[in-house]
Design a protein that fits this description.
Elements lengths: L2 H10 L1 H4 L6 H17 L4 H17 L8 H16 L14 E6 L6 H13 L6 E5 L5 H14 L3 E2 L7 H15 L3 E5 L8 H14 L3 E7 L4 H14 L3 E5 L8 H10 L3 E5 L7 E3 L2 H8 L2
Parallel strand pairs: 1-4, 1-5, 2-3, 2-4, 5-6, 6-7
Antiparallel strand pairs: 7-8
Helix pairs in contact: 1-3, 3-4, 4-5, 5-12, 6-7, 8-9, 10-11
The structure holds guanosine-5'-diphosphate.
Guanosine-5'-diphosphate binds next to helix 6.
Protein backbone atom coordinates (compact mmCIF):
# COMPACT_ATOMS: atom_id res chain seq x y z
CA UNK A 1 0.00 0.00 0.00
CA UNK A 2 1.36 3.41 -1.03
CA UNK A 3 4.65 1.78 -2.06
CA UNK A 4 5.07 3.83 -5.21
CA UNK A 5 4.25 7.10 -3.48
CA UNK A 6 6.70 6.31 -0.70
CA UNK A 7 9.47 5.63 -3.20
CA UNK A 8 8.77 8.68 -5.27
CA UNK A 9 8.56 11.04 -2.32
CA UNK A 10 11.80 9.64 -1.04
CA UNK A 11 13.41 10.45 -4.38
CA UNK A 12 11.82 13.92 -4.36
CA UNK A 13 13.54 14.71 -1.06
CA UNK A 14 16.86 13.49 -2.36
CA UNK A 15 18.15 16.92 -3.36
CA UNK A 16 17.18 18.54 -0.08
CA UNK A 17 18.65 15.69 1.92
CA UNK A 18 22.02 16.04 0.22
CA UNK A 19 24.69 18.34 1.53
CA UNK A 20 24.81 20.80 -1.35
CA UNK A 21 23.74 24.40 -1.22
CA UNK A 22 19.93 24.67 -0.98
CA UNK A 23 18.33 27.19 -3.27
CA UNK A 24 14.85 28.28 -4.21
CA UNK A 25 15.37 26.31 -7.40
CA UNK A 26 15.99 23.13 -5.37
CA UNK A 27 12.80 23.68 -3.41
CA UNK A 28 10.81 24.33 -6.60
CA UNK A 29 12.26 21.17 -8.16
CA UNK A 30 11.38 19.13 -5.06
CA UNK A 31 7.84 20.49 -5.07
CA UNK A 32 7.51 19.57 -8.73
CA UNK A 33 8.67 16.03 -7.99
CA UNK A 34 6.12 15.79 -5.16
CA UNK A 35 3.37 16.91 -7.54
CA UNK A 36 4.42 14.23 -10.01
CA UNK A 37 4.45 11.62 -7.26
CA UNK A 38 0.90 12.58 -6.22
CA UNK A 39 -0.41 12.49 -9.78
CA UNK A 40 1.22 9.07 -10.24
CA UNK A 41 -0.61 7.96 -7.08
CA UNK A 42 -3.83 8.82 -8.94
CA UNK A 43 -4.48 12.11 -7.18
CA UNK A 44 -6.22 14.47 -9.61
CA UNK A 45 -3.98 17.13 -11.11
CA UNK A 46 -6.11 19.88 -9.55
CA UNK A 47 -5.71 18.54 -6.02
CA UNK A 48 -2.03 17.72 -6.52
CA UNK A 49 -1.47 21.30 -7.64
CA UNK A 50 -3.34 22.77 -4.68
CA UNK A 51 -1.43 20.59 -2.23
CA UNK A 52 1.97 21.35 -3.67
CA UNK A 53 1.09 25.04 -3.85
CA UNK A 54 0.52 24.98 -0.09
CA UNK A 55 3.69 22.92 0.47
CA UNK A 56 5.76 25.45 -1.46
CA UNK A 57 4.28 28.37 0.45
CA UNK A 58 4.92 26.64 3.77
CA UNK A 59 8.44 25.66 2.75
CA UNK A 60 9.41 29.17 1.84
CA UNK A 61 7.57 30.59 4.88
CA UNK A 62 9.29 28.19 7.25
CA UNK A 63 12.67 29.07 5.87
CA UNK A 64 13.61 25.69 4.46
CA UNK A 65 16.28 27.57 2.53
CA UNK A 66 18.21 28.60 5.61
CA UNK A 67 17.40 25.54 7.70
CA UNK A 68 20.26 23.34 8.85
CA UNK A 69 18.18 20.29 8.02
CA UNK A 70 16.09 21.28 5.02
CA UNK A 71 15.21 17.67 4.16
CA UNK A 72 13.71 17.02 7.58
CA UNK A 73 11.78 20.26 7.64
CA UNK A 74 10.41 19.61 4.16
CA UNK A 75 9.40 16.06 5.13
CA UNK A 76 7.44 17.43 8.07
CA UNK A 77 5.69 20.01 5.90
CA UNK A 78 4.69 17.36 3.35
CA UNK A 79 3.62 14.94 6.08
CA UNK A 80 1.36 17.55 7.70
CA UNK A 81 -0.14 18.51 4.35
CA UNK A 82 -0.87 14.88 3.44
CA UNK A 83 -2.45 14.24 6.85
CA UNK A 84 -4.61 17.32 6.34
CA UNK A 85 -5.59 16.11 2.86
CA UNK A 86 -6.82 12.85 4.39
CA UNK A 87 -8.85 14.61 7.07
CA UNK A 88 -6.43 15.43 9.88
CA UNK A 89 -7.83 13.81 12.99
CA UNK A 90 -9.65 10.49 13.40
CA UNK A 91 -13.44 10.44 12.87
CA UNK A 92 -15.24 8.10 15.24
CA UNK A 93 -18.72 6.66 14.81
CA UNK A 94 -21.54 8.07 16.89
CA UNK A 95 -23.26 5.04 18.40
CA UNK A 96 -24.88 6.56 21.47
CA UNK A 97 -28.49 5.58 20.79
CA UNK A 98 -29.71 2.07 21.53
CA UNK A 99 -30.02 0.39 19.22
CA UNK A 100 -27.72 2.39 16.98
CA UNK A 101 -28.32 1.70 13.33
CA UNK A 102 -25.52 1.47 10.75
CA UNK A 103 -26.46 1.36 7.07
CA UNK A 104 -23.90 -0.04 4.64
CA UNK A 105 -24.10 1.36 1.11
CA UNK A 106 -22.00 0.87 -2.00
CA UNK A 107 -21.61 -0.91 -5.31
CA UNK A 108 -21.67 -4.69 -5.68
CA UNK A 109 -18.25 -6.16 -5.05
CA UNK A 110 -17.03 -3.17 -3.04
CA UNK A 111 -16.86 -5.28 0.11
CA UNK A 112 -20.14 -4.40 1.86
CA UNK A 113 -20.96 -7.88 3.15
CA UNK A 114 -17.38 -8.58 4.23
CA UNK A 115 -17.16 -5.23 5.99
CA UNK A 116 -20.58 -5.59 7.64
CA UNK A 117 -19.07 -8.68 9.26
CA UNK A 118 -15.76 -7.01 10.07
CA UNK A 119 -17.58 -4.08 11.68
CA UNK A 120 -19.80 -6.41 13.73
CA UNK A 121 -16.68 -8.27 14.84
CA UNK A 122 -14.92 -5.00 15.70
CA UNK A 123 -17.90 -3.82 17.79
CA UNK A 124 -18.47 -7.19 19.44
CA UNK A 125 -14.91 -7.13 20.71
CA UNK A 126 -15.65 -3.89 22.53
CA UNK A 127 -17.77 -5.97 24.93
CA UNK A 128 -20.31 -3.18 25.44
CA UNK A 129 -21.80 -3.75 21.99
CA UNK A 130 -24.13 -6.53 20.92
CA UNK A 131 -24.49 -6.26 17.14
CA UNK A 132 -27.16 -7.71 14.87
CA UNK A 133 -26.42 -8.18 11.17
CA UNK A 134 -29.24 -7.67 8.69
CA UNK A 135 -29.39 -9.16 5.19
CA UNK A 136 -31.21 -6.73 2.93
CA UNK A 137 -29.94 -7.86 -0.48
CA UNK A 138 -33.20 -9.34 -1.74
CA UNK A 139 -31.89 -9.92 -5.28
CA UNK A 140 -29.02 -12.28 -4.59
CA UNK A 141 -29.75 -15.25 -2.32
CA UNK A 142 -25.99 -15.89 -2.41
CA UNK A 143 -25.44 -12.56 -0.68
CA UNK A 144 -27.77 -13.55 2.17
CA UNK A 145 -25.95 -16.87 2.54
CA UNK A 146 -22.61 -15.08 2.48
CA UNK A 147 -23.71 -12.87 5.38
CA UNK A 148 -24.95 -15.93 7.28
CA UNK A 149 -21.56 -17.61 6.85
CA UNK A 150 -19.84 -14.45 8.07
CA UNK A 151 -22.24 -14.22 11.05
CA UNK A 152 -21.51 -17.80 12.02
CA UNK A 153 -17.78 -17.22 11.76
CA UNK A 154 -17.82 -14.30 14.19
CA UNK A 155 -20.69 -15.48 16.37
CA UNK A 156 -23.12 -12.70 15.47
CA UNK A 157 -26.82 -13.27 14.74
CA UNK A 158 -28.00 -12.53 11.20
CA UNK A 159 -31.54 -11.29 10.61
CA UNK A 160 -33.11 -12.20 7.26
CA UNK A 161 -36.62 -12.80 5.96
CA UNK A 162 -37.07 -15.49 3.38
CA UNK A 163 -39.74 -14.62 0.84
CA UNK A 164 -39.80 -10.92 1.72
CA UNK A 165 -38.43 -8.93 -1.20
CA UNK A 166 -38.97 -5.52 0.31
CA UNK A 167 -35.73 -4.23 1.85
CA UNK A 168 -37.51 -1.35 3.60
CA UNK A 169 -39.74 -3.70 5.55
CA UNK A 170 -36.88 -6.14 6.30
CA UNK A 171 -34.74 -3.32 7.67
CA UNK A 172 -37.62 -1.88 9.72
CA UNK A 173 -38.52 -5.31 11.13
CA UNK A 174 -34.87 -5.95 11.95
CA UNK A 175 -34.64 -2.78 14.04
CA UNK A 176 -37.79 -3.85 15.93
CA UNK A 177 -36.25 -7.32 16.41
CA UNK A 178 -33.10 -5.71 17.80
CA UNK A 179 -35.09 -3.60 20.25
CA UNK A 180 -37.07 -6.59 21.45
CA UNK A 181 -34.01 -8.81 21.85
CA UNK A 182 -31.39 -6.60 23.46
CA UNK A 183 -29.16 -5.86 20.45
CA UNK A 184 -27.67 -2.37 20.75
CA UNK A 185 -26.20 -2.09 17.24
CA UNK A 186 -27.92 -3.01 13.97
CA UNK A 187 -25.75 -3.29 10.85
CA UNK A 188 -27.77 -3.33 7.65
CA UNK A 189 -26.09 -4.83 4.57
CA UNK A 190 -27.82 -3.64 1.39
CA UNK A 191 -27.92 -4.62 -2.27
CA UNK A 192 -25.45 -3.00 -4.62
CA UNK A 193 -25.27 -3.00 -8.40
CA UNK A 194 -22.21 -3.13 -10.60
CA UNK A 195 -22.70 0.51 -11.54
CA UNK A 196 -24.80 3.35 -10.22
CA UNK A 197 -28.40 3.12 -11.37
CA UNK A 198 -31.59 4.88 -10.43
CA UNK A 199 -33.35 1.80 -8.99
CA UNK A 200 -30.49 1.10 -6.57
CA UNK A 201 -30.31 4.73 -5.48
CA UNK A 202 -34.08 4.91 -4.92
CA UNK A 203 -34.01 1.70 -2.90
CA UNK A 204 -31.14 2.72 -0.62
CA UNK A 205 -32.69 6.16 -0.17
CA UNK A 206 -35.99 4.54 0.89
CA UNK A 207 -34.25 2.22 3.37
CA UNK A 208 -32.32 5.21 4.69
CA UNK A 209 -35.51 7.25 5.13
CA UNK A 210 -37.29 4.37 6.90
CA UNK A 211 -34.65 3.41 9.47
CA UNK A 212 -32.92 6.80 9.87
CA UNK A 213 -29.45 5.35 10.53
CA UNK A 214 -27.10 6.87 13.09
CA UNK A 215 -24.25 6.06 10.73
CA UNK A 216 -24.50 5.53 7.01
CA UNK A 217 -21.19 4.21 5.76
CA UNK A 218 -20.26 4.23 2.11
CA UNK A 219 -18.16 1.18 1.27
CA UNK A 220 -15.79 1.55 -1.66
CA UNK A 221 -12.99 -0.42 -3.28
CA UNK A 222 -9.80 1.67 -3.07
CA UNK A 223 -8.34 -0.11 -6.08
CA UNK A 224 -10.82 1.68 -8.34
CA UNK A 225 -8.93 4.95 -7.77
CA UNK A 226 -10.63 8.03 -9.19
CA UNK A 227 -13.77 5.98 -9.95
CA UNK A 228 -14.01 5.39 -6.21
CA UNK A 229 -13.96 9.13 -5.66
CA UNK A 230 -16.66 9.72 -8.29
CA UNK A 231 -18.90 6.98 -6.87
CA UNK A 232 -18.38 8.40 -3.39
CA UNK A 233 -19.67 11.73 -4.65
CA UNK A 234 -22.74 10.19 -6.32
CA UNK A 235 -23.76 8.25 -3.18
CA UNK A 236 -23.16 11.26 -0.97
CA UNK A 237 -25.48 13.37 -3.12
CA UNK A 238 -28.28 10.91 -2.36
CA UNK A 239 -27.49 9.80 1.21
CA UNK A 240 -25.41 12.57 2.77
CA UNK A 241 -23.59 9.77 4.59
CA UNK A 242 -21.51 10.00 7.76
CA UNK A 243 -18.36 8.33 6.54
CA UNK A 244 -16.47 6.02 4.22
CA UNK A 245 -15.03 2.52 4.57
CA UNK A 246 -12.19 2.21 2.11
CA UNK A 247 -11.68 -1.46 1.30
CA UNK A 248 -8.95 -3.57 -0.29
CA UNK A 249 -6.20 -1.18 0.69
CA UNK A 250 -3.96 -4.25 0.92
CA UNK A 251 -4.07 -4.49 -2.88
CA UNK A 252 -3.96 -0.78 -3.64
CA UNK A 253 -0.46 0.29 -4.57
CA UNK A 254 -1.37 3.82 -5.63
CA UNK A 255 -3.55 5.22 -2.85
CA UNK A 256 -5.35 7.93 -4.85
CA UNK A 257 -8.76 7.29 -3.27
CA UNK A 258 -7.35 7.26 0.25
CA UNK A 259 -5.57 10.51 -0.42
CA UNK A 260 -8.43 12.42 -2.01
CA UNK A 261 -11.89 11.13 -1.02
CA UNK A 262 -11.94 13.29 2.09
CA UNK A 263 -11.11 16.47 0.22
CA UNK A 264 -13.44 15.86 -2.73
CA UNK A 265 -16.48 14.56 -0.83
CA UNK A 266 -15.84 16.32 2.49
CA UNK A 267 -16.69 13.17 4.42
CA UNK A 268 -14.19 11.30 6.59
CA UNK A 269 -12.76 7.86 5.93
CA UNK A 270 -13.68 6.07 9.16
CA UNK A 271 -12.31 2.59 8.50
CA UNK A 272 -9.97 0.85 6.11
CA UNK A 273 -10.18 -2.77 5.01
CA UNK A 274 -6.84 -4.50 4.63
CA UNK A 275 -7.69 -8.10 3.79
CA UNK A 276 -10.39 -10.72 3.44
CA UNK A 277 -10.30 -11.96 7.02
CA UNK A 278 -12.74 -10.74 9.67
CA UNK A 279 -10.07 -8.94 11.66
CA UNK A 280 -8.66 -7.05 8.67
CA UNK A 281 -10.34 -3.78 9.59
CA UNK A 282 -8.61 -0.72 11.01
CA UNK A 283 -9.83 2.61 12.27
CA UNK A 284 -8.44 5.20 9.87
CA UNK A 285 -5.93 7.58 11.43
CA UNK A 286 -4.89 10.18 8.82
CA UNK A 287 -1.87 11.27 10.85
CA UNK A 288 -0.55 7.73 11.22
CA UNK A 289 -1.14 7.02 7.54
CA UNK A 290 0.78 10.18 6.62
CA UNK A 291 3.64 9.06 8.89
CA UNK A 292 3.66 5.74 7.11
CA UNK A 293 3.71 7.32 3.65
CA UNK A 294 6.60 9.59 4.59
CA UNK A 295 8.39 6.60 6.14
P1 LIG B 1 -20.26 -6.78 -1.70
O1 LIG B 1 -20.79 -7.27 -3.01
O2 LIG B 1 -20.13 -5.29 -1.67
O3 LIG B 1 -21.01 -7.31 -0.51
O4 LIG B 1 -18.74 -7.32 -1.60
P2 LIG B 1 -18.13 -8.57 -0.80
O5 LIG B 1 -18.13 -8.30 0.66
O6 LIG B 1 -18.81 -9.81 -1.27
O7 LIG B 1 -16.62 -8.53 -1.29
C1 LIG B 1 -16.26 -8.77 -2.62
C2 LIG B 1 -14.91 -9.49 -2.68
O8 LIG B 1 -13.89 -8.66 -2.16
C3 LIG B 1 -14.88 -10.75 -1.81
O9 LIG B 1 -14.17 -11.75 -2.50
C4 LIG B 1 -14.13 -10.31 -0.55
O10 LIG B 1 -13.45 -11.37 0.07
C5 LIG B 1 -13.17 -9.31 -1.13
N1 LIG B 1 -12.78 -8.28 -0.14
C6 LIG B 1 -13.60 -7.50 0.60
N2 LIG B 1 -12.88 -6.65 1.35
C7 LIG B 1 -11.57 -6.88 1.10
C8 LIG B 1 -10.32 -6.29 1.58
O11 LIG B 1 -10.27 -5.36 2.39
N3 LIG B 1 -9.18 -6.81 1.03
C9 LIG B 1 -9.19 -7.82 0.12
N4 LIG B 1 -8.03 -8.24 -0.35
N5 LIG B 1 -10.33 -8.37 -0.35
C10 LIG B 1 -11.50 -7.92 0.14
Amino acid sequence: MFDNLQDKLDKAFHVLKGHGQISEVNVAETVKEIRRALVDADVSYKIAKEVTGRIKEEALGQKVLTSLQPGQLMTKIVRDEIARLMGGSVAEMDLKSSPSVILMAGLQGSGKTTHSGKLANFLKRKKTKKPLLVACDVYRPAAINQLKVVGEQIGVEVYSEEGNNNPVSIATNAVAHAKANGFNVVIVDTAGRLAIDQAMMTEIRDVHAAIKPDETLFVVDSMTGQDAVNTAKAFNDVLDYEGVILTKLDGDTRGGAALTIRTVVEKPIKFIGTGEKMDALDVFYPERMADRILG
